[in-house]
User: Which sequence fits this backbone?
């Protein structure tokens, strides 16, 4: 009798819709396996007075100053980490698993003696490279040791971007062969063969998409836009996702809208600009690439993976109004260059940032670690010329 493979997929909520996509990857690739899905939300001690006591003991000052909510403080205590770990092991010990797989770096989903894989978009220490983050924003040292244990217990850690792969190796002492850069996918509504008309890039329509106006660099963009209007009085700025008060010509603040409606704003735009100050990954950049938009963004985090200078757009220093305005103005003056950047980004998206391509990378590494060949027949994708591998 052949025993059916069994896989545990451990997730925490939606994770910006990424968890559903990863689950589908595992189901499609390991078609002969039973996949048990465990949501950490079911295991967190939400109303336990002891968890609140630990949170206030560790982060009382931050909670009092409203730098953290009590809920956020609870989630970053060793008490909750170990409670979730204990409850999770009780679930995992009910069955033998071929391997376990978790997304995010907020809990330890490993089971002793079972291969374990982690897929993450961030590490806490990588945040120290952002200007909007300081050492005081880190969790307490005891929790940082909990985070370190996640990577120590993993068979392989999959990173969504170069900066996180580098952080795992340099900040957490992970062996290089334990870390794999697999990128991430996006569910952009566009086709691989889609082409964007030249006339689009002459319309000078700047687009900002983000919920957190300040963290995403909105105030810096407004200051840059004031300067852009002097050179291009016919330029426009559209803000989607938040509702700041802006009293400038040709500025349209759309605010929060349903996700499917965002596509039309990408389609009508000429240029995407998000001078963010703190960005764990930035799926919105992938959506702009899929829609053929050149990009002006800050030189932070994963963004240099998306914005290849001279081929896709321009990178600027955080809070640098002059650089931002100069790069935007220069692009608005060169519609042909914007079209070339847009075409390159569209191609890069389809070569590197689809869930199909990301799934192949992840599952190839899993199969190699387990020593068996899975059911998928797709081969590892080749990078488009000029892109980082």
Assistant:
């Amino acid at each position: 009798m052949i025993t059916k493979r069994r896989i545990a997929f451990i997730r925490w909520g939606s994770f910006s819709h990424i968890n559903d996509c990863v689950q589908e990857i595992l189901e499609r690739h390991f078609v002969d396996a039973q996949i048990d899905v465990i949501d950490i939300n079911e295991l967190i001690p939400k109303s336990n007075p002891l968890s609140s006591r630990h949170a206030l003991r560790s982060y009382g000052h931050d909670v009092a100053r409203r730098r953290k909510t009590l809920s956020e403080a609870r989630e970053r205590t060793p008490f909750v980490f170990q409670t979730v770990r204990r409850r999770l092991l009780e679930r995992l010990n009910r069955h033998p698993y071929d391997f376990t797989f978790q997304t995010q770096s907020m809990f330890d989903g490993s089971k002793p003696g079972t291969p374990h894989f982690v897929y993450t978009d961030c590490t806490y220490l990588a945040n120290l490279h952002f200007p909007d983050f300081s050492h005081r924003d880190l969790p307490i040292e005891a929790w940082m040791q909990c985070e370190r244990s996640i990577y120590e217990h993993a068979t392989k850690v999959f990173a969504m971007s170069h900066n996180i792969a580098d952080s795992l190796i340099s900040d957490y002492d992970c062996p290089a062969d334990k870390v794999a850069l697999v990128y991430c996918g996006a569910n952009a509504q566009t086709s691989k063969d889609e082409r964007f008309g030249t006339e689009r890039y002459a319309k000078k329509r700047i687009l900002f998409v983000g919920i957190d106006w300040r963290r995403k660099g909105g105030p810096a963009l407004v200051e840059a836009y004031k300067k852009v209007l002097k050179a291009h009085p016919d330029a426009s700025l559209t803000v989607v996702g938040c509702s700041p008060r802006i009293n400038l010509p040709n500025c349209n603040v759309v605010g929060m809208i349903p996700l499917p409606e965002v596509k039309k704003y990408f389609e009508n735009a000429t240029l995407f600009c998000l001078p963010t100050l703190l960005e764990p990954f930035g799926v919105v950049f992938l959506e702009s690439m899929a829609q053929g938009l050149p990009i002006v963004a800050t030189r932070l985090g994963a963004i240099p993976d998306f914005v290849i200078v001279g081929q896709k757009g321009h990178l600027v220093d955080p809070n640098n109004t002059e650089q931002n305005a100069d790069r935007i103005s220069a692009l608005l003056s060169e519609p042909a260059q914007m079209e070339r950047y847009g075409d390159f980004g569209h191609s890069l998206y389809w070569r590197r940032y689809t869930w199909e391509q990301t799934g192949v990378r992840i599952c190839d590494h899993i199969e190699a670690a387990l020593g068996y060949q899975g059911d998928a027949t797709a081969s590892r994708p080749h990078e488009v010329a000029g892109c980082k591998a």
In short: The radius of gyration is 22 Å. The CA atoms of residues 51 and 74 lie 6 Å apart. Confidence is low (pLDDT under 50) at residues 373-389. The chain is about 40% helix and 15% strand.
